[in-house]
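Comment on this:
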Amino acid sequence: MKAAEAGIWKSTEMRRRLAEAGLEISAGKMSALWTGTPTTIRLDDLDVICAVLKCEPTDLLIREQEKVAARRPRKAAEATGGTVVTPRFGRHRSVPPA
C-alpha cells in the first residue's frame, strides 16, 4: 500500500528506486517483498525501503499475534499428553569420572 501511495505500481520500479538508494535486491527477494510474504528482512534494508517510501517501519510491519502464540513452547503435560514426570534425586548418585 505504501508503494502505491508513493506512485510505485510495479515491483521493477520499486527495485530500481531501491538500487538508486544503494540497496540491490534480487528478483526473488523483491517478489517476496512485493507480494507481502517475506520470510526475513534486514533492518538496514528496512531503513532504505522506508527512506524510498518516505514512511516509518511501523507503516510497513503488521503484527501477527497468532504466529507469536504458536511459537510459545507448550507445557510439558500438553506435550506428552499426560502427567508430568519429575525426577527425584536419590542418595545413590553416580560419581563423575575422574
In short: Residues 2-63 form one domain. The mean pLDDT is 83.
